[in-house]
Amino acid sequence: MNDLYLAKTGDAYQGACESLDALGFSVSGKRVYIKPNLTGGLPSRNGLTVDIGIVRAVLERLHDCPQITIGESCSDTATAFEELGYRRLVEEFPNVRLEDIRLAKIVWKPIPEPYHTKEMPFNASVFNHDYVINIAKMKTHSLAGVTLCLKNVFGFIPTRKQKLMYHPFIRKAILDMNQVVPSHFCLIDGIWGNEFDEVQSTPKYTGAVVAGENMLAVDIIAAEIMGINLNEIDTYRMAFELWGDPEINLLGGSLDDVKTMYRQGCLFSTRIRYLKETSASLAYRLFNRH
């Protein structure tokens, strides 16, 4: 049985603190990698980017950790770190460093049970850590169905060209990625989520933070809040076959208090973009290791 906590709140920091404390979350003496979902420098209220308050709440519960890294690989990671307050945050927590995964050293890793490819590139530094904390945003996605913790691991692919190789095939590619980079603790920022199109900001106020150790269990609860059945998404059906369908003990708030309906779909321009990406991906893979 997997204990999860659902905080009904309009404040990301308070919701994270409530959730983490209720679950007894505390990490000591480990090398910790924190992966928040950052989409440029947009504020969390726009629905695309994790609220920094959740990251702060996590940092406050890490004790005597010799290495703490916060990493991401969005379109302009350096600007996102600056505009969202992460550079000021590391001044408060001097043992924390920021990593722009796009500029990181790359290592290719074999996939134990391949769904899309036999090996993939990752930022090398994540493998120098003992404990990965996955902080996702509550969003829909036209290719992946949802953007929750399972998809957030896609950010460990370093360069734009490498992402291009896998993004059109993301429904299977993220199953490969998550076999190589396990998430030891997961949180989802659902204060303001994003519905309909993953490129366009269409904020959806939901007022929820979900937390727990089991990634699939956390995603299940988040999707239920969004009115989405993960069994209808082939990625998750395969994930349940690979890792099992988790039993959940939900603590905290009631699903009925925060449940809302997220519209799914995408703009015509997004569809055209993905058609171009697919063609470019296939061409790029002919001449590059994949």
The major β-sheet equals: 9 strands, mixed
Instruction: Please state the average pLDDT score.
Output: 94
Distance between the termini: 38 Å
Helical stretch tally:
11
Q: How many distinct domains?
A: 1
CATH class reads Alpha Beta
Instruction: List low-confidence stretches.
Output: none
Number of strands: 13
So, CATH architecture? 3-Layer(aba) Sandwich
Strand content: 25-35%
Cα-atom radius of gyration: 18 Å
Predict the CATH topology.
Rossmann fold
Backbone structural class: alpha/beta
Which percent bin holds the helix content? Answer: 25-40%
Can you give a write-up of this model?
By secondary structure, the chain is of the alpha/beta class. It has a single domain (2-287), classed as 3-Layer(aba) Sandwich (Rossmann fold). 35% of the residues lie in helices and 27% in strands. The protein is built from eleven helices and 13 strands. The strands form three sheets. Strands 1, 3, 5, 6, 9, 10, 11, 12 and 13 form a nine-stranded mixed β-sheet that branches. Strand 7 and strand 8 (119-123) form a beta hairpin. Helix 6 (160-166) crosses helix 11 (268-287) and helix 7 runs parallel beside helix 9. The longest helix is centred in the last third of the chain and has 20 residues, at 268-287. The model has no long low-confidence stretch (mean pLDDT 94).
